[in-house]
């Protein structure tokens, strides 16, 4: 198990034990505390399946704690976000997400379309500016290079402007057709680790959303 996963699990377990101490219902407090210990134990044993089940159990119990007014909504949002980040990291590290994702085997229309008209390919200057794109000048057949920080900002901006506030991987690929899927996944992982976005679900049907705190976007404009 990588160091990021181990550190994240320690942080989450510590936070869970802190909030559990204030829960008045004994059985609910005991369940959350026990699962917090199991989380550390399963990760130390490198048991990915049990770890993922433990995370799902913790999300269910903190949801219950919030619904019965034993857990503040702001603390619930933070804990669920961090548990989701840990879950996504374990799935990617263990290869469970990649196994179910067969979409990458198919060629997308955007990747085989040849378009030498820069304005048509990237849209007008207002659209490019809206998503924070810095369009490089094209020379011969070389594709423009978009720096990682710019790509990640483009993803964040697109999530902000999406109607439902969430996007699938294929939607993000359409925003950056000149960037490989592997690079986009790397950018998404960086945004996960920084706590700016999280993923809901697994496989090709999963969605990416901005991390929020009590319904408010936590990313500064």
From TrEMBL:
Taxonomic path: Bacteria, Candidatus Harrisoniibacteriota
All residue ranges annotated as the HTH deoR-type domain in the record: 151-199
GO molecular function: DNA-binding transcription factor activity
Keyword Transcription regulation tagged: yes
Entry protein name: HTH deoR-type domain-containing protein
InterPro entries in the record: DeoR_HTH, WH_DNA-bd_sf
Keyword annotations: Transcription, Transcription regulation
Organism superkingdom: Bacteria
Pfam families: HTH_DeoR
